[in-house]
Amino acid sequence: MSEQALRETMVMLGASLFERGYATGGAGNLSARLPDGTLIATPTGSCLGRLTPESLSKVSMDGEHLAGDRPSKEVAFHLALYRNNPQCLAVVHLHCTHLTALSCLDGLDPANVIRPFTPYYVMRVGSLPLIPYYKPGDERIAQELGHRAQDAGAFLLANHGPVVMGKNLVEAVNNMEELEETARLALLLQGQSIRYLSEPEVAELRSLKP
């Protein structure tokens, strides 16, 4: 995908996320890696519903601001994922309602916040490790994600929200939407007797992962 096409795709997907309530105000950020290794990312404080192609930030893999508006401070943890997982070509970080609510619960399993109970959660996301709470912009978020970049395709920042990777921006957004729906169902089912997927069922689904 050309740089211009990627910029236009990011604007379109940002608007779609905003219009459907996955993003509010200036919260959340998107990024995607170009073939030359540079990133296109949403600018600091920008609303995903009001992006323009020319205002999107261009950033080197070293974090140097190359063009466009100033990038979000959270691009640091995007870069940590790109540097430590060659399969990662796009990152979506949102403060979507159900995943953020889930991130605020006490007693979550740090290895996998959502125990598998639907097929597409397994196939699209796989597992959801928990990253301990650090204030937004804290360099330890990038350090934690960098260390664990190959452990999973998504992470939940405690008391903050999700971070999801993909092989392209469309896939990353689709994975985020599947994860948010899974969190919504998990909260709806709290207190109910849930039939979780068995280990053999999960193993079979992992072999079908798109």
From TrEMBL:
Transmembrane segments: none annotated. Its EC number is 4.1.1.104. One of its GO terms (molecular function) is metal ion binding. GO terms for biological process: pentose catabolic process. Keywords: Carbohydrate metabolism, Lyase, Metal-binding, Zinc. The keyword Cell inner membrane does not apply. SMART domains: Aldolase_II. It comes from the Bacteria. InterPro entries: Aldolase_class_II_sugar_metab, Aldolase_II/adducin_N, Aldolase_II/adducin_N_sf, OtnC. Belongs to the aldolase class II family. AraD/FucA subfamily. This is 3-oxo-tetronate 4-phosphate decarboxylase. It comes from Aeromonas molluscorum 848. The lineage of its organism: Bacteria, Pseudomonadati, Pseudomonadota, Gammaproteobacteria, Aeromonadales.
